[in-house]
Each structure stands twice: as structure tokens, then as C-alpha cells.
Amino acid sequence: MKNLVILGAGTSGTMMANHLRPKLYLNKWNITIVDQYKTHYYQPGFLFLPFDIYKEEQVKKVGKKFIPKDVKYIQKKIEKIIPEENKVELEGETLEYDVLIIATGCKIAPEETNGLIGPLWKKDIFDFYTYEGSLALRDKLRDWQGGKLLVHITEMPIKCPVAPLEFSFLADSYFREKGMRDKVEITYVTPLSGAFTKPTCTTALNYLLQEKGIKIETDFAIEHVDNDTKEIVDYEGRKIPFDLLVTIPTNMGDEVIAKSGLGDDLNFVPTDHNTLQSKAHENIFVIGDATNVPASKAGSVAHFEAETLADNILLYIDGYPLKKEFDGHANCFIETGNNKALLIDFNYVTEPVHGKFPFAKIGPLSLLKESVLNHWGKLAFRWIYWNMLLKGIAIPFVSRNMSFSGKVFDIKSEKK
Amino acid sequence: MAVKTIAGVEVKVTEDGYLEDMTQWNKEIAKEIAKELGIELTDKHFEVINYLRNRTIAKEALTIRSVGKSGIVDIKQLYELFPKGPLKFSSKIAGIPKPTSCI
Fold first, then answer.
1. Contact state of A346 with B102 under an 8 Å Cβ cutoff
2. What CATH topology corresponds to A108-251?
3. Cβ of A309: how many Cβ atoms within 10 Å?
4. For position A405, what pLDDT does the model report?
5. pTM > 0.90
6. Bond preceding residue A157 cis, omega within 30 of 0
7. Which of A69, A208, A341, B12 is most buried, judged by most C-beta within 10 A?
8. Between β-strands A2-7 and A29-34, what pairing exists: parallel, antiparallel or unpaired?
């Protein structure tokens, strides 16, 4: 018997188990998946928890439920990967593998910024990239009296790069509905040169910040948080005061990657951009947020990667060359508040385009343009996630590679 | 996309003045872009610029953090070399794409 081991039972790992079990003979291949946690979170839902749009039970389920029955599920901490011996050490157990899939994701590392985890952490400083952080922020917002709200990105890359913007837009709607928008000053703080950095998006979407009265501070690379004066301070000594700081801390790959000597300076695994094979070891493949590929760290990207990776693992096992297929395709809904959303479709090289999706000229969804239907698309996606995406069922009419039919590449301003 | 003459060379540039093709870059072009940004280039600047170009050729993402860990400069020194926009300006001078997010 041969062994295929998947590390991590999040979005990517779960999808791979579902893709591969029906394709590998039961009498030839064991598949084992390892994850230390029992609960599988619907991470896009963390954006909605703080605003009381979703409830706790809508974003979590028991992870094992989504793993095929002929896949062995081990709920243990992963201690170390030893690629030279094709072994993975778990707590009190060692697994041998012929093929390894690393799907250990990424997580926030607030300890990387001085003063972030200080006296104000979870009092006036919050994250919403964890379940606990998102809930704590919800409780804070429920009776917050207003003041200066900063929505802040520490550094790129981060999981779901549009989430901080969506958070700003939803915060605007939330405080308007509560009748206290005039008491809240919202400022978006980014290390990049703008909220929208791709020329197509800058042109099409800059009106959103103005329309919602969201201020912006660009090129801000945080050096530390001053807990006494309640300010964030950058490397040039620029200071921005806050009453409530919602921050996206540095995102890093799992520490097991560092312990195993497999990662870069952020613990992301160097991975071939098109085949998803690890650069260092031919029998190790990497998917989702754990890779260092320059695609967005997002569920939709993992979904498209999973289709290519499943094919490539079968090719690898049979000794064929791998397909250089994955193009960095991402397809994301972006909440803009007031029950509207945008939809963007792009890849490694093509900027988000205008047009209709998934059918050329018909849609029904519009790309790079606010609509109520896109908002319902985003909400419906939660059902698709639990019922189709995790199970490896292809989403009808949405292909793994980006399609160019019916899309418009000359971008006009989308002012209303 | 536009064509611009920098240091006597016709180069393709983006709307905000970043080189479209990093192979069109040379040291003179770097000096002229830097001048427009009010920066006088020293050997230390060029060490950072070469590091950024090599990372880009290797298709690795650029972060302020990675430059800070490069052994060439720490982040404070990077800011001193390229004030007000360390990655934004150093990328422009190095002839590589502007650091962007997905939108």
C-alpha cells in the first residue's frame, strides 16, 4: 500500500481529500488527513460576525463531517515534516508518505508587531481574521459610542486582501443604520500606495471611498503601537491616533513549516506557480494559503488550485509530466455595504475586468460593478461552500482557468 | 501604457511611471527616476535596488519585511534611503512593477 498524507483539513485539505479519494484505488492508496482542530470554520463569515449579520453557528461545523469515510482523519498536532525521510511527526505518532500535500494555511501573527498584544489588545485593538477576534469585535461594536476607527493592514500578503476594504464599507453601513455615522471617523490605513492599486480598479472604484466618507492613509508601514497615547506609529515616525483599531496583523504560514525548514521568511512554502509542486521536493505538493504563489490567499483560488492539483497528483503517481495549468485565477465577491457587492475575476497577469459572469454578455452577475445581485451571490456562497466547494464538486460554468470571452478590457470610471 | 524618454532611452512606462519591461532598465535610468523623486542614489541604494530586481526575476513577492531581513538594510534604513514610500519608490527606481494588491 502507498500513502498519501494531507496536512491540514481546512478548505484546501478537505477539497483535496474529496477530489482524490474517488480517483485513487482503495487497495493501492491510503489517504490520511491530519488537523489538530475539530472545528471547520467558514472563514469568509468572519467578516460578517462583527456586524451581527451572521451568527456563530452559521460559520462553523465539525470538520470530520466533510472528510470522505475512506480517508483516515487524525486529529493531532503536526510536529515536523522530515522530507529527506518522507515522514511526518505528529504528537506521539509518525506517518510515512509517498506523496505529501501541505495545506496548513496561514494565520495572523500579532506578536510580530511591537505593542499590538499589549494592554489594549481585545479592549480597543481587535482583529477579525480569527473566530475569537471577530466575536470580541462584535461585542465591542454593539455598545461602542463612536470615535476614530482605524481599519489597518500591517503588511502584505494577507489572506483575502479585500476583506479590510469590505470591513470599512460594512462599518459605514452599520454605523449609518445605527444612526451614529456622524460620531464615527473611519480611516483605512494601508502599506500600499492606495486602497485600489490596480489601475483598472482605481479608475472604476475610487468613488466608493468618497461616497462613504472613508478617509485613507497610504504607504504606512507600522513600526509599533503606542498603547499610552493610542496611536499607531510607522518607521518614519508618522502617527495616526485611534479610539478603536481594527488591524490585520502580519499573516504567516504555520510554524511547522518553519520547524521543518520548508518555508520563506513568512513560513510560506516555495511552490511552482503553475503545477503547485513544491520547489524543493518532487513528492511534496502545496495548496491554498500555505504556498508562496503570487495569487490571492482566498478560498476561490484554493478551489481552482484543487482541480489542477488533483490532476497533477494523478499524473505524478503515474510518472507523467505535470500540467503547468494553474493561472492564479481568483473570483471574489466584495461587499460594498448597503446590501450591494462587486464581483471580480482575475489571474496572475490579467487585472480585474469588466463584463458579465459566468456567461458572456448574459451574466447574470456583473464584474467590477456594484449590484444587489452580487451581494446575494456572496451570501449564497456560504451554502455553496458547505455543500459543493468542500466536497470538491465543480461549480457549474465556473472554470479553473480564467475565461476571457465577453470581458471588457478598456476600463471606464463607474461613477453613478 | 506610454513611451517616455528617460536618460536618453525610450522606455515603456505605466500610467504612474513604472517601467513596463524591467529589461529596459539601466543605472542611468534609475538615477533619473530617483532625481524626479528627489533622491540622490548612493551605492547603498543600488544594493537595495539589485536585491529587489533579483527577487523579482526569481518571481518572489516583495515586502518591506523581506528587504528588512535581506542583510542589506533594516527597515528604518530602507525608509531613510527611500523616504515616504520605501517599497513604492524603490520599485519605481529599480524598474520593477509597483507593489499591488488584488484590486
1. yes
2. FAD/NAD(P)-binding domain (3.50.50)
3. 30
4. 67
5. yes
6. yes
7. A341
8. parallel
